[in-house]
Amino acid sequence: MIKETFNIAPVPASRARITRYSAYFPKRYSDFRDNFTKLLEDYDTELLEGKLYAKLDFYVEIPKSWSKKKSKEMDGRYCLNNADLDNYCKAALDCLEGKYYENDRQVCMIRARKFYSTNTRIEFELTPIKEDL
Description:
Strand order of the largest sheet: 1-6-4-5
Order of helices and strands: EEEHEHHEE
Structural class: alpha+beta
Helix content: 10-25%
Strand content: 25-35%
CATH superfamily: Holliday junction resolvase RusA
């Protein structure tokens, strides 16, 4: 079992933007992928094989427009922002590919949650699945 905490603000995956000449991702998502990849360089890991179970907890930044009272009240509570949870998962799993597992197709089960937090981070746990259901 692998258990890690990545001190990076989670960003949901975005669709590629298509132009006449090329395809690109929005800057916020591209920057997240680049920063996460650099962060992962410091981690010494081995690739896991077989089927995997991933647990992901996303601690999302509290909006700056909120009052101090509301921010304090919502810190640690479930996040209800406009971003879909599956897009947070896709962004994180795509970045972790090649570092913890060969391909994200190996992930057969996911448990994911998102919370508001003053300490943005991604908590990640990966467990090999021993037997079929």
